[in-house]
Write a sequence for this structure.
């Protein structure tokens, strides 16, 4: 029996243990479900569902629109999850197959920049809840809330740094610790509070809540238009996580884990959360005489100190949850991918956290220009990036990925292309991103702006498939395999992770032409 030839050792410019294929796979169905609870139980998602109802869509149309949108998201997550599960690598490493071993830093940095901005914004928004909670418990501290130091009061700075520190402690403990926290805290706690609000308001309203009436009397055609926009915006909101879903699916033990977790956590849980949000909003009309679609304001309206404290704590926890899932894990891997020899997941995470202070998120969020043009333009890039990754894995390669070659800087390597960059990915991305950004940002095109991601995905996917026709022909039409891809890099990383750090072997670099 012949022994299969050994692959060259991974290049330290492309490898560390955090970027290597996952040596342990402990994220079962419940952990993936809890991941989605942490992400979907956000004030922004609650307000989005409620605002559709306040805008004039009958409650049942809100549910149908959101269910349709999140079902599309569910399909995209499963497609990206298939790649993440089989390869066991995080998003920036998976992107090396389509962008090149060095070119993958381009999409990774675009994702990281957006995540850093929103990580800071979400941390600051959570800190405003801390300020409200502090003033509720200690009104005498109000004197420290009226000065300004770089745009924040003394109390605001203390609250922001407290939230920043709490998250830093959580986030630098690693992915397994994050899994345990979200399993038992960040996901379930918000459900309890929102369900309690719904029961309280429905009882107070005496059951006088209509699920079929339009609050504003929207015409039938206007309802159809708003429903389609709601479907599209639901998908657009989740494209960030579609892009880096491999960061989580890589830890699942089998395909059923992420598929079932996605099913329960997205179509089922997201729609159920929307139902409760609309019920609460409808209840506020009967009980308070006005539609309130901010749950924090609903809690304040109840005017009970105990309810205020419990509610504020719950939504602080919820904000931490969405920050972890949507805005921390990805940039931690993305920054680590820039210089794996020096940056691991924890150091990449600390860079994310420090940059979140430097960008002064309260100034970003207060500027409509920044939100619309900077973050809006970056968001327009997500559709093309998602399309290139999915088309490369499912259509061009038919799931045939050489995982070990993802860590090789050899000029003859499968993913080295031209000096480590794949010009085909750039040629597909740039025109698609330009069109997508124009549709999203040019005022004259406001009507189609909510659907810009569809155009971006379609154009980038078609261009990449066309440019990669030779690779598609070579892959043929064979079924995409389901088994986890064997990797010598994975075995080496698992072995090294059990050794004391001082005893771990140094991995020599692979020679590269021209270096």
């Amino acid at each position: 029996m012949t022994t299969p030839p050994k692959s060259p050792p991974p290049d330290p410019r492309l490898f560390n243990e955090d970027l290597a294929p996952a040596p342990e796979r402990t994220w079962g169905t419940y952990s993936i479900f809890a991941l989605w609870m942490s992400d979907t139980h956000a004030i922004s998602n609650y307000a989005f569902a409620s605002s559709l109802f306040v805008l004039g869509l009958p409650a049942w149309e809100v549910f149908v629109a959101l269910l349709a949108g999140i079902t599309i998201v569910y399909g995209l997550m499963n497609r990206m999850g298939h790649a993440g599960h089989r390869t066991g690598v995080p998003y920036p490493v998976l992107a090396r197959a389509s962008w090149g071993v060095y070119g993958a830093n381009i999409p990774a940095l675009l994702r990281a920049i957006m995540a850093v901005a929103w990580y800071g914004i979400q941390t600051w928004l959570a800190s405003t809840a801390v300020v409200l909670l502090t003033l509720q418990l200690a009104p005498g501290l109000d004197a420290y809330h009226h000065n300004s130091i770089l745009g924040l009061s003394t109390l605001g700075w203390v609250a922001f740094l407290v939230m920043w520190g709490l998250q830093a402690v959580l986030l630098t403990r690693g992915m397994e610790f994050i899994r345990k926290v979200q399993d038992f805290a960040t996901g379930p706690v918000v459900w309890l509070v929102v369900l309690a609000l719904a029961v309280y308001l429905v009882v107070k309203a005496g059951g006088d809540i209509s699920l079929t009436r339009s609050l504003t009397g929207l015409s039938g055609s206007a309802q159809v238009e708003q429903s389609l926009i709601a479907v599209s915006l639901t998908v657009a909101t989740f494209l960030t996580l579609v892009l880096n879903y491999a960061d989580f699916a890589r830890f699942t033990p089998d395909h059923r884990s992420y598929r079932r977790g996605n099913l329960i956590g997205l179509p089922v849980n997201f729609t159920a959360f929307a139902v409760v949000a609309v019920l609460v909003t409808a209840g506020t009309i009967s009980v308070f005489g006005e539609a309130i679609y901010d749950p924090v304001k609903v809690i304040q309206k109840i005017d009970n100190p105990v309810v205020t404290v419990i509610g504020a704590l719950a939504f602080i926890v919820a904000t931490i949850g969405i920050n972890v899932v949507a805005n921390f894990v990805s940039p931690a891997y993305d920054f680590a991918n820039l210089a794996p020899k020096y940056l691991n997941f924890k150091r990449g995470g600390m860079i994310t956290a420090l940059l979140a202070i430097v960008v002064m998120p309260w100034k970003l969020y207060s500027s409509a220009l920044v939100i619309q043009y900077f973050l809006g333009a970056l968001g327009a890039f997500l559709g093309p990036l998602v399309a290139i990754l999915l088309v490369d894995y499912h259509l061009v390669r038919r799931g045939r990925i050489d995982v070990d070659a993802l860590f090789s800087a050899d000029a003859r390597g499968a993913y080295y292309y031209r000096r480590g960059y794949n010009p085909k990915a750039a040629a597909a991305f740039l025109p698609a991103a330009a069109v997508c950004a124009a549709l999203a940002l040019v005022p004259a095109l406001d009507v189609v702006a909510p659907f810009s991601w569809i155009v971006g995905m379609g154009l980038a996917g078609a261009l990449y498939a066309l440019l990669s026709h030779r690779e598609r022909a070579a892959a043929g039409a064979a079924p995409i395999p389901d088994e986890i891809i064997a990797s010598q890099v994975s075995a080496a990383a698992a072995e090294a992770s059990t050794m004391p750090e001082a005893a771990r072997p140094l991995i020599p670099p692979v020679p590269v032409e021209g270096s």
About this structure: The CA atoms of residues 29 and 257 lie 4 Å apart.
